[in-house]
Amino acid sequence: MITPEERARDKLLRKRKEALQGGGEEKIHSQHEKGKLTARERIEVLLDTESFEEIGAFVTHRSREFGLEKQRIPGDGVVTGRGTIDGRPVLVFSQDFTVFGGSLSEMHAQKIVRLQELALDNGIPLIGLNDSGGARIQEGVLSLAGYADIFYRNVLSSGIVPQLSVILGPCAGGAVYSPAITDFILMTEGTSYMFVTGPNVVKTVTHEEVTFEDLGGARVHAEKSGVAHLTAPSDVDTLLLTRRLFSYLPLNWKDKPPRRPCPISTSANVPQLKYVVPENPAQHYDVRDVIRALVDPLSFLEIQPEYAANIVIGFARLGGYVVGIVANQPLVLAGVLDIAASQKAARFVRFCDAFNIPLIVLEDVPGFLPGTHQEWGGIIKEGAKLLYAFSEATVPRLTVILRKAYGGAYDVMNSRHIGADYVFAWPTAEIAVMGPQGAAEIIFKREIAAAPDPAAALAEKTAEYRRIFANPYRAADRGFVDAVILPEETRRILFAALDSLQNKQRSRPPRKHGNIPL
Ligand code: HXC
């Protein structure tokens, strides 16, 4: 004889089992066939083992049209809940493509909104795993309203809690704007794509023939558009990368990023730094070699590595402290600042500032990229973004001038004048309005033209300019550079400076908000 209590228990267990099945065996099989994990498998990879607690497993849609009233699947195409990553709390939603193609209904949206409110009220980061056919077509405007409810809360949460978007399948139409507002977008290569209008619409409007992958696949967004911050070859890799990214982030804007024990000394010299920058100022080197030698072993996570590669950005640890690195990359376009590099770095600087992540800038920049393409593209306002972002940042800010610091780019790259706490320069630093030859050509134009051997005269005047200005001492003389340091001393000096700035407080005059040149 079954007691009422047992019957109630059975009912719950049956409903739970039903909810776990999503769209059913066949659809799960088809998901796996595409090389994709299911919504629940993804959560298992992302979160600490058995830490996931589901919220809203029995929510269903309210539609009564197009036969939907006969198909009510618990959860309504999105699995939501909380869990932990490395023991730290996180809220997560995972769209379930096996249920109506993961499409977003009114109730699906409300489940996400509920997480957004929990995130805001409790200062907990939110990670969204996206795999959706977009607005649930049968629900019309209710679905559009749901999207807008999410977008609005994405904006309200910006700068309050970190928001990460992981794209593991389709993300199309207006749906792309939620990830776009969040802080980081990660994509799986080959199985995810993002675009505002798909290949069919593109063909109708512009007559271009393009595949899903070429229009909005992970490669395209990593290399061409800069929409994707990180990509990986499979769902598992992308989710593990998300865990790694999370390890650098604080829970919210009042929290500090998690410090970890540092496996190596912070007071020892790093001899290999002596040899990275070539003596010849025209010769290239990879600034990532400088970064890796400076920071704690294996701690550097480069962000947007394939986009605007003339600037390198990423997270690392120095003596266990999380830092954001911004470095000119002499290996690509001689490390020049252009539109894409300025935007890329500016957004990163603002993220770090919003979430209490100190900034370390490694400078070797010949200036801004000349040309009509840049001018017509708005390098004036785009370069200004980086200037603005550094100037408004109140986190600890350190600069090391490795080699070139020319022209406006000297000012922009976290100079003392715009609020850096400490600026150091290597003996190889050249700090001037422009490169020695260009400078000599302008200021000694008449003398060079009148000389019996103009080439020799140019060489002589170039050498003279180099001797006077292409060094760190003019700037050090005025206190614009706090110390000229040997490359091998840099790690210990940066660590000591960073350690001393842990209680930095810098306030700004009250205002509604600034007006960054967008
Ligand atoms: C309802 C949807 C759906 C949607 C897919 N499905 N998208 N149901 N609303 N938006 C259903 C399908 O009917 C199908 O159901 C199941 O999900 C799986 O879809 P398939 O087409 O079989 O999968 P696949 O071949 O992998 O193709 C995936 C897809 C395609 C490319 C995403 O489904 C597709 O093009 N969907 C429509 C995309 C779209 O136009 N969405 C609206 C965009 S506008 P059954 O029962 O047959 O298995 C938008 C606006 C947002 O989103 C605005 C925000 C402001």
Low-confidence stretches: none
> So what's the overall shape?
elongated
> What is the helix content?
25-40%
CATH class of the largest domain: Alpha Beta
Beta content: 15-25%
Total number of beta strands: 17
* Radius of gyration from the alpha-carbon trace, in angstroms: 27 Å
State the fourth-level CATH superfamily of the largest domain.
2-enoyl-CoA Hydratase, Chain A, domain 1
Structural class: alpha/beta
The hetero molecules present are:
hexanoyl-coenzyme A
Oligomer: single chain
- CATH fold title of the largest domain: 2-enoyl-CoA Hydratase, Chain A, domain 1
Distance between the termini: 71 Å
- What is the residue-mean pLDDT, rounded to a whole number? 96
How is this fold's topology laid out?
Layout: H1 4-20, H2 25-33, H3 39-46, E1 53-55, E2 78-85, E3 88-95, H4 106-122, E4 126-130, H5 141-157, E5 163-167, E6 170-172, H6 177-181, E7 184-188, E8 193-195, H7 199-206, H8 212-216, H9 218-225, E9 230-232, H10 235-246, H11 287-294, E10 301-303, E11 311-318, E12 321-328, H12 339-354, E13 359-365, H13 372-377, H14 379-392, E14 397-406, H15 407-412, E15 422-425, E16 430-432, H16 436-443, H17 445-450, H18 454-469, H19 473-477, E17 483-484, H20 490-500
Helix pairs in contact: 4-5, 12-14, 16-18
The structure holds hexanoyl-coenzyme A.
